[in-house]
Write a structure and sequence with these properties.
The protein is α/β, with parallel strands linked by helices. The protein folds into three domains: 59 residues, Alpha-Beta Plaits; 88 residues, 2-Layer Sandwich (GMP Synthetase, Chain A, domain 3); 176 residues, Vaccinia Virus protein VP39 (Rossmann fold, 3-Layer(aba) Sandwich), CATH 3.40.50. It is built from nine helices and 17 strands. The strands form four sheets. It has a seven-stranded mixed sheet, sandwiched between helices. It has a four-stranded antiparallel sheet with strand order 2-3-1-4, covered by helices on one side. Strands 5-6-7-8 form a four-stranded mixed sheet. A hairpin with a 2-residue loop joins β2 and β3. The longest helix is centred in the middle third of the chain and has 18 residues. The relative contact order is 0.08. The model has no long low-confidence stretch (mean pLDDT 91).
């Protein structure tokens, strides 16, 4: 088993970062190594870990410690072996952890056992407070419709604090969309932004027109890459979370709540930014034409955008992006379209990255 070796006092922070990236081996225990701890890495963790993980030592250890029971083990005990085997294909085996919230989808076949599923999760994850069933993203603001399954102490508030990429932030998945599964993409944005800063020789002016609670901006601020930023989201609830999460930074910031396609119509924002982040995945290609004017001209600038598109259209995305850049009179230095993660059997989730001059 491969382990990330970290100082004991920082174990929980590193563990949460690995969990958010899907690189934590949940069925193995943290092991003690004197003043250090070894956090078990899943097979999905890359052979060479990126920053900041590469600053820590990775070692192979053989351990005879038995893995703790997962929530499925607790669930089998709760419903009994006969019922468990009857619905063996339908029990939910994965979930998202956001701070002290656990969020999962429960198939219709086992809805009658929702309470037992929730209690099994609370038994397995000792720091969890609330288990929520995810009924999908709905409405104008694309927010999860969450149903409370069970609570450890009666507290049913969905606001919680999460750690991601060594940043602590306030989120409320019932009011503002947030996914821990994109933390790896946000970490890679930091690396790309660092390269852009090196080319410009100064800190960056950043625009995130669909900022949500600010998960893409927090690590950029922590890395000291930002001179000023504009954080916008149409959802009014996002503004409250953005204020809470970004207010500790001393950089110049502008927080707005309007349709992002109107931003470039305000003259002072045209050409005002070096880095543009566009994450409204089902509408990205429709919105880009209105957003590209926000980027500065005649110097290096960077667009990072994410889209979800039907697989039969994936091959056309690069051409569509090139057309949008040409219509805006942009000179591209490089352009790439990269798969991010599996979204559905019929749709791809893609990163669009364009380095411009």
């Amino acid at each position: 088993m491969r382990y990330l070796v970290v100082p004991s006092r920082d174990t929980e922070e590193w563990r949460e970062d690995l969990l958010s990236l899907g690189w934590l081996a949940r069925d193995h225990q943290v092991i003690k190594r004197g003043e250090y701890r070894g956090i078990p890495l899943a097979d999905s963790a890359p052979p060479e870990l990126p920053e900041p993980f590469c600053d820590q030592e990775c070692l192979e250890f053989e351990t005879e410690q038995p893995p703790p029971a997962d929530h499925i083990g607790f669930l089998r005990e709760a419903v009994g072996a006969e019922v468990f085997e009857q619905f063996s294909e339908h029990w939910p085996r994965s979930y998202d952890q956001m701070g002290d919230l656990l969020i999962l989808k429960i198939p219709e076949e086992v809805q009658a056992y929702s309470e037992q599923i929730g209690e099994a999760l609370l038994a397995h994850v000792s720091r969890a407070r609330l288990v929520l069933q995810d009924h999908g993203v709905r409405g104008e603001y694309r927010v999860r419709r969450l149903e409370i399954v069970t609570s450890r102490d009666g507290d049913q508030t969905t606001e919680t604090t999460v750690r991601e990429n060594h940043c602590e932030m306030l989120v409320d998945p019932a009011k503002v969309y947030y996914s821990p599964r994109l933390s790896g993409e946000r970490a890679r944005t930091v690396s790309a932004a660092a390269s852009l800063r090196e080319q410009l020789g100064r800190s960056l002016r950043v625009c995130d027109p669909y900022a949500g609670a600010g998960p893409a901006l927090m690590p950029l601020l922590k890395a000291g890459l930002v001179e000023s930023l504009l954080a916008n989201d149409l959802n009014p609830a996002a503004g409250t979370l953005l204020e809470a999460n970004l207010s500790r930074s001393r950089v110049r910031m502008d927080i707005r709540c309007l349709d992002a396609r109107r931003l470039a119509l305000e003259g002072e924002l045209t050409g005002a930014f070096d880095l543009l982040l566009v994450n409204i995945p089902h509408s990205t290609l429709d919105h880009l034409g209105d957003l590209l004017p926000l980027l500065e001209r005649g110097q290096p600038s960077l667009l990072r955008a994410w889209c979800i598109i039907e697989q039969h259209e994936t091959s056309t995305v690069a051409g569509r992006l090139e057309e949008l850049l040409e219509l805006d009179g942009r000179q591209q230095r490089s352009l790439s379209v990269t798969p991010v993660r599996s979204y559905s059997p019929s749709h791809d989730h893609l990163l669009l990255e364009a380095w411009l001059d």
